[in-house]
Design a protein that fits this description.
single chain; 113 residues; alpha+beta; 5 strands; 27% helix
């Protein structure tokens, strides 16, 4: 993970905390899911992908596929125990310059299943 990608994940974690989520884990490998958090308002475990665009004119990064999300969630849950209801969110950060970025949070990006 590059320094810029690490900063994007850290910024996303800070954003989630500011919205009342508890960050349970931050994954630093090549996984699609970068953050596992608890949404205390909905009592859900949230698996969050973090994607980064260098410029607004860049195409949006491809979203991870459902199977990839689910496999990573199952692996995490096997290691940490079942925490009840789960969902998948995606966060897209677009670099705006001077250490700033536009953040879009797509809640429940895979819909209900």
């Amino acid at each position: 993970m590059s320094n810029l990608e690490k900063r994007a994940v850290d910024a996303t974690a800070a954003y989630l905390c500011s919205k009342g989520y508890d960050v349970l884990d931050m994954l630093d490998g090549n996984e699609a899911v970068k953050i596992v958090a608890r949404d205390n308002d909905t009592d859900e475990t949230v698996f969050v992908s973090v994607q980064l665009r260098q410029r607004a004119s860049d195409a949006e990064p491809a979203q991870p596929q459902r199977a990839e999300y689910e496999a990573e969630a199952c692996e995490w849950l096997a290691d940490h125990g079942n925490l009840g209801k789960c969902r998948f969110d995606a966060v897209l950060l677009t670099v705006a310059g001077d250490g700033r970025a536009l953040l879009r949070h797509h809640i429940n990006c895979l819909g209900t299943f």
